Amino acid sequence: MAIGLEDKKAIVAEVNETATSALSLVVADARGVTVGGMTALRSQARDNAVTLRVVRNTLAKRALAGTEYECVSDVLVGPSLFGFSMEDPGAAARLFKEFAKEHKNFEVKALAVSGQMLGAEQLDVLASLPTRDQALAMLMSVMKAPVTKLVQTMNEVPGKLVRTLAAVRDQKEAAA
């Protein structure tokens, strides 16, 4: 079914708006994936703040022009499924990686982060990025470590004094 010019303009504008606010992009080929599989993928994408779009390549190239994801234009051959990570840069990569394990027909074509295109083999690198909560937890543990060490060191001084006094007491009791 043919798409009218106004509908094409709306699709291009919508994808462009999504691309401008996205943190990363994963492009995949979903040929051979069942409708039930795609429905499950879309459901998981909503839960992980990932926007999924299937767009014609010509419209996608126009929509991505002028954004930091323009670099993926060269790999747009055949049907393409676009996964835009909106809150966590690694969310779409983790989602597509897990989905590809279950569906052999699902193939990741390319990734893009901050205007840099990565090959499909870099999927694990992007998927292993910590989430915001994990990154904050790591930061807090790094910030907490020096304070904890200082408290332990300061607590050691009175503890050593108490142990020395106890040793003197035991020595005097043994002598008496």
Using the 3D structure, state the CATH architecture of the largest domain: 2-Layer Sandwich
Number of domains: 2
CATH H level, superfamily name of the largest domain: Ribosomal protein L10, N-terminal RNA-binding domain
Number of strands: 5
Helix content: 55-70%
On the 0-100 scale, what is the average pLDDT? 81
Going across the major beta sheet, what is the strand order? 2-3-1-4-5
Organism: Kineobactrum sediminis
Protein name: Large ribosomal subunit protein uL10
Keywords: Ribonucleoprotein, Ribosomal protein, RNA-binding, rRNA-binding
Function: Forms part of the ribosomal stalk, playing a central role in the interaction of the ribosome with GTP-bound translation factors.
Structural overview:
The protein contains 6 helices and 5 strands. α1 (5-21) packs across α3 (57-64). The mean pLDDT is 81. The chain is elongated and about 105 Å long. It has 2 domains: 5-129, Ribosomal protein L10, N-terminal RNA-binding domain (Alpha-Beta Plaits); 130-175. Helix content is 56%, strand content 15%. It has a 5-stranded antiparallel β-sheet with strand order 2-3-1-4-5, sandwiched between helices. It holds the Pfam family Ribosomal_L10. One of its GO terms (biological process) is translation.
